[in-house]
Predict the 3D structure of the following.
Amino acid sequence: MRAAARHRPMKVLADRTEAGSLPGTYERYRMVPAIEGGGMRGTGSAGMALALHELGLLNAFDAVCGASAGAISAATG
């Protein structure tokens, strides 16, 4: 498998961020992060969600899903 094909989600996020996209404006791919919960795993997921925010990547996603502690992190984004 080509390297570009393995990393297509990263390319889609980069392209959307560079273009200044807004959620729901692309039809080919639907980008949705799934933020897990479950006690201490929720703290790692919260850190990932914060990193997405600080990197300015939130508008590159169309929606967000979360369970347990991940739902709390998803709601605060």
